[in-house]
Amino acid sequence: MTAPAPRPERTARVVLVALVVVGLALLGGAAWVGSRPAPTWFAYAPLSGTTYTPRGTPSSGTVALLSAAGTLLLGGAAGFAVGRRSRPAAGAQPE
Q1: What secondary structure, in 3-state letters, does the chain show?
Q2: How far is CA 69 from the centre of its chain?
Q3: Span 57-67, pLDDT tens digits
Q4: Residues near 39 by Cβ (< 8 Å), separated by ≥ 6?
Q5: d(Cα 23, Cα 40) in Å, to the nearest integer?
Q6: What is the torsion angle, in degrees rounded to the nearest 10, for the CA atoms of residue 10, residue 90, residue 1 and residue 14?
Q7: What gap in Å lies between CA 15 and CA 5, rounded to an integer?
């Protein structure tokens, strides 16, 4: 008994939904990390010249990385959807 042929339309929808969900999750994560309050204090030891900042402080690079990845995934999902929609019909003749 042979397996049924894969359904590309369903696979395309699953890929599209996955791209959108992961992209929105990354953008939501960037918004959450960016909204966390930054520590307003630091410790400075004048004799050693070192500065102490508490751990767990999100950097602006983390927010930028998360938002860039989310935006790229959403842009990829939009391009994927537009590309699938603008494909010529199966029986259409090229001009």
Answers
A1: CCCCCCCHHHHHHHHHHHHHHHHHHHHHHHHHHHHCCCCCCCEEECCCCEEECCCCCCCHHHHHHHHHHHHHHHHHHHHHHHHHHCCCCCCCCCC
A2: 4
A3: 677 788 899 99
A4: 53, 54, 57
A5: 31
A6: -10
A7: 18
For the chain, residues with pLDDT lower than 70 are 1, 3-7, 38-57, 86-95
Whole-prediction pTM value? 0.62
CA gap 86, 51 in Å, rounded: 57
CA 28, CA 25: separation in Å to the nearest integer? 5
